[in-house]
UniProtKB/TrEMBL annotation:
SLBB domain residues: 214-292
InterPro entries: Poly_export (IPR049712), Poly_export_N (IPR003715), SLBB_dom (IPR054765)
Protein location: Cell outer membrane
Name of protein: Polysaccharide export protein Wza
One protein family per Pfam: SLBB_2
Highest taxon of source: Bacteria
């Protein structure tokens, strides 16, 4: 229907009487004209039309959000995207010396992506048989008369011998026998030969009753710093961490397990360790120093490894060399991590990294799209407050919806939040978003009326001008 014009005969309002009567009559006439114009505009479909969530649409199911509904909705299958590793071409294009420091941030539209620690595995090693060392306690027992340990003062009587700094044990009637560096079988053979040479032929068993010569050290973000003796049973990384009471961290992404071995530094991202059984079963060696590192400050890791180097029985020159090596290797790992972070940030800045989004519309504080973060979930509260907060001026806060497409053939779910009860904001912090969710804020009734007036005012002016002409 074409836009209608209301033509009013000016002579119709020419009445006699005093000025006050004329003004009153003119006011009434203008209101009648306005009402008539509204009716005409309404019939012509020219009034303001705003988006709403229909109450009786069979293709839309409105769900009032409660704690139980949040639990069910969050149970839908979804795994956040993993942060991709940077491409080699991206890293090649970066000036390594200009790579910015790694600074983590909370997930938001301006999320700064911190690259995970770099994986650097130690070379594979074959499990070696235990070799006796200085400080180990060796016991000799007769086949028919096993001897129990009761105290250091009875060592000679109980046939218990500590390996001395010379690497030897001193046996009565046969003298000193060097056993350091020998396997338990080789040590038994050496003792047997010496005893036989001294006409001692009774059968005996040789065993190690105290493992003191070799150890693995665990420190950093673990429950208890500990030293684990190396025994006949091979030690794995998970064994060492369990012996230290487990890893204590609130930030898995920035946590790494560093292993210092024979002058070389290796590193395992904690997230990789949790997901990969082969890393958990990584065999350890005597002398390994393990440090669980949380965060991006390398000073604590450097101080820890420098302390372990200082405790070893090395020359001063070699200790200095090893300390310089560990410092350089930590710096190299840090530089590689910062470079990878810069490469990822470059892809985000150029929008070349595939992302998942939710969309804010209606009376949202800002109509925009909100990128879902990598590797963890985002909530409705994250999206709302990242884009300006709860829209309290123009929006009807009792009708905030999350529109979500479900399986084929099912109606669209319209999860309705009533934030006129401020306690329901807690539900917004718990309700997890999914890719392509639409967050819709309905408008206030007064907002709609205000916009109707704004829309029709030009029409009324046009009507008045037309009537005058």
């Amino acid at each position: 229907m074409p836009h209608a014009r209301v033509k009013i005969n000016p002579n119709f309002f020419q009445i006699k009487g005093n000025r006050r009567s004329k003004n009153l009559f003119h006011t009434i006439a203008r209101r009648i004209a306005l009402t008539t114009s509204l009716a005409i505009l309404n019939n012509c479909g020219a009034l303001y039309i705003s988006p709403t969530v229909p109450l009786n649409d069979p293709d839309v199911q409105i769900v009032e959000v409660t704690q139980g509904v949040v639990k069910i909705a969050n149970g839908s299958a979804y795994s956040p995207r993993a942060l991709p590793r940077p491409r080699s071409a991206d890293i090649t294009a970066i000036d390594l010396q200009s790579a910015q420091p790694v600074v983590p941030r909370v997930a938001s539209r301006q999320q700064t992506i911190s690259a995970p620690p770099v994986l650097r595995l130690p070379p594979q090693t074959k499990t070696k048989r235990y070799r006796i060392g200085v400080g180990d306690v060796v016991s000799l027992t007769g086949r028919s008369n096993p001897i129990a340990i009761s105290g250091a003062e009875d060592q000679q009587r109980l046939n218990i011998y500590t390996v001395q700094d010379s690497g030897a044990i001193a046996l009565p009637d046969v003298g000193s026998i060097k056993v350091a560096g020998l396997t338990i079988e080789d040590a038994h053979s050496a003792v047997f030969k010496r005893r036989a040479a001294n006409q001692i032929t009774d059968a005996f068993a040789l065993d190690i009753s105290g493992f003191n010569s070799q150890q693995i050290i665990v420190g950093g973000a673990v429950k208890t710093h500990t030293r684990i003796p190396v025994t006949f049973a091979p030690s794995t990384l998970s064994d060492a961490i369990a012996a230290a009471g487990g890893i204590v961290t609130e930030d898995e992404r920035s946590t790494s397990i560093k292993i210092y071995r024979l002058g070389e530094l290796y590193q395992l991202p904690f997230a990789d360790y949790l997901e990969t059984s082969d890393l958990q079963r990584l065999p350890l060696m005597s002398g390994d120093a393990i440090y669980v590192h949380v965060g991006y400050d390398l000073a604590t890791a450097q101080a820890y490894f420098s302390e372990q180097i200082a405790r070893t029985e090395l020359s001063i020159a070699l200790k200095t060399q090893r300390t310089e090596q560990i410092t350089a290797q930590l710096s190299a790992l840090d530089l590689q991590q910062r470079t990878e972070q810069t490469a990822i940030q470059m892809r985000i800045a150029t929008d070349s990294l595939q992302r998942e989004y939710v969309y804010l519309t209606g009376e949202a504080s800002k109509q925009t799209r909100f990128p879902l973060p990598f590797e963890h979930h985002a909530s409705l509260a994250d999206a709302l407050f990242d884009s300006g907060g709860l829209p309290t001026i123009t929006a009807n806060i009792s009708q905030i919806y999350i529109l979500r497409k479900r399986s084929s053939g099912s109606p669209i779910a319209a999860y309705r939040f009533d934030f006129s009860n401020a306690a329901n904001l807690v539900l917004a912090t718990e309700f997890q978003l999914r890719p392509n969710d639409v967050i819709f804020a309905a408008e206030q009734p007064i907002t709609k009326w205000h916009r109707v007036i704004q829309q029709i005012t030009p029409s009324l002016i046009t009507t008045g001008v037309g009537a005058t002409n």
